[in-house]
């Protein structure tokens, strides 16, 4: 019972830490003139993926590479199979954002890269460093491509972030107050990091204990409980965006998170300590991850929208994955 309580506490701390970090970092970025679109694509997008970063890094530090790998792979399956599916069931989504048409192929390419690296039986430290360099290139391309988006997309991101409380209302009084409150934004960032580290530690320790108690492998617990738990910020963001009929934000959140998980989260974990890839993970989990990435890209190619039927199909496929994994 104590391990379950610690796991739930860790999840709550991770969710709260991600929210605090995104709030502080977004407001700090806005105070120095960064556009809401860029904040949404980078600060918010990466901030909601910080639970995966912390959990996988701590797992790698603690000598639990299976949890680090399972967390990333499981999150990349849960993002389209659970989060995108739920958002589409709430409201069918049409995506007009040009950036998504470039990001979807990048997601496929990065997924294939990780699949190829895993075929050697491990993801080496050099591989991890190269993946982190790839993340830097992806961010650079994202910032360049963001300039080509129409004003409507930028306005959509600004309205969403204002309503979530991540950005202040854009007026002279608030801009003046922001300048005087940068220290407070930095404190929000520090609080978020502290909650993330504390929650990540509790989650890794409790998940490891539960896996050993019930005879479940670390990879399975990482791909299910840990992966879904660390994806809670993405779930909240995508559901809110779907309810507000802002499909570009919801879908962009999923695709950006999947790319960041592979290049940033897995890359960092491998740079800390090489990650062995068991044959069962390579031949099952990673193939499912590749299939979900391909399905997501295919769904977006059909009229640049995700229908309720497609959402139901993704959710059913995710249910099959979980059932087969836990058999």
Q: Would you mind describing this structure in some detail?
A:
The chain has 14 helices and four strands. The strands form two sheets. It has a two-stranded antiparallel sheet with strand order 1-4. A two-stranded antiparallel ribbon has the order 2-3. The longest helix has 33 residues, at 182-214. It has helices spanning 2-31, 36-47, 50-61, 65-90, 98-118, 125-146, 151-163, 172-180, 182-214, 218-230, 232-243, 247-272, 279-301, 308-326, and strands at residues 93-94, 122-123, 275-276, 305-306. 83% of the residues lie in helices and 2% in strands. By secondary structure, the chain is an all-alpha fold.
Gyration radius from CA atoms, angstroms = 19 Å
Number of DSSP helical runs? 14
Strand order of the largest sheet: 1-4
Mean pLDDT across the residues is 85
Class from secondary-structure proportions? mainly alpha
**What fraction strand?**
under 5%
What general form does the structure show? globular
Distance between the termini: 23 Å
Report low-confidence residues grouped into runs of 5 or more.
Answer: none
Percent range for helical residues?
over 70%
Topology:
Blueprint: H1 2-31, H2 36-47, H3 50-61, H4 65-90, E1 93-94, H5 98-118, E2 122-123, H6 125-146, H7 151-163, H8 172-180, H9 182-214, H10 218-230, H11 232-243, H12 247-272, E3 275-276, H13 279-301, E4 305-306, H14 308-326
Antiparallel strand pairs: 1-4, 2-3
Helix pairs in contact: 1-2, 1-9, 2-6, 2-12, 3-4, 3-9, 3-12, 4-10, 4-11, 4-12, 4-13, 4-14, 5-12, 5-13, 6-12, 9-10, 11-12, 13-14
Quick structural summary:
With 327 residues, this protein is an all-alpha fold. Helix content is 83%, strand content 2%.
């Amino acid at each position: 019972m104590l391990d379950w309580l610690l796991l739930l506490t860790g999840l709550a701390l991770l969710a709260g830490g991600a929210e605090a970090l995104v709030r502080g970092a977004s407001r700090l970025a806005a105070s120095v003139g960064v556009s809401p679109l860029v904040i949404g694509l980078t600060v918010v997008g990466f901030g909601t993926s910080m639970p995966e970063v912390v959990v996988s890094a701590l797992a790698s530090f603690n000598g639990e590479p299976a949890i680090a790998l399972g967390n990333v792979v499981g999150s990349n399956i849960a993002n389209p199979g659970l989060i995108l599916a739920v958002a589409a069931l709430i409201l069918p989504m049409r995506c007009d954002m040009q950036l998504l048409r470039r990001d979807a192929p990048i997601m496929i390419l990065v997924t294939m890269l990780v699949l190829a690296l895993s075929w050697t039986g491990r993801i080496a430290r050099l591989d991890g460093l190269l993946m982190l360099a790839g993340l830097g290139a992806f961010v650079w391309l994202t910032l360049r491509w963001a300039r080509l988006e129409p004003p409507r997309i930028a306005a959509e991101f600004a309205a969403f972030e204002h309503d979530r409380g991540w950005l202040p209302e854009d007026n002279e009084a608030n801009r003046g107050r922001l300048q005087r409150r940068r220290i407070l934004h930095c404190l929000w960032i520090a609080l978020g990091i502290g909650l993330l580290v504390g929650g990540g530690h509790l989650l890794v320790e409790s998940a490891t204990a539960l896996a050993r108690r019930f005879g479940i492998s670390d990879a399975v617990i990482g791909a299910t409980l840990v992966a879904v738990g660390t994806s809670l910020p993405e779930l909240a963001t995508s559901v809110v965006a779907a309810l507000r009929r802002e499909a570009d934000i919801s879908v962009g959140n999923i695709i950006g998170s999947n790319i960041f998980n592979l290049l940033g989260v897995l890359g960092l974990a491998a740079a800390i300590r090489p990650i062995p890839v068991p044959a069962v993970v390579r031949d099952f989990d990673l193939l499912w991850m590749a299939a979900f990435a391909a399905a997501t890209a295919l769904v977006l190619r059909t009229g640049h929208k995700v229908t309720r039927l497609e959402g139901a199909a993704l959710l059913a496929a995710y249910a099959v994955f979980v059932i087969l994994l836990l058999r």
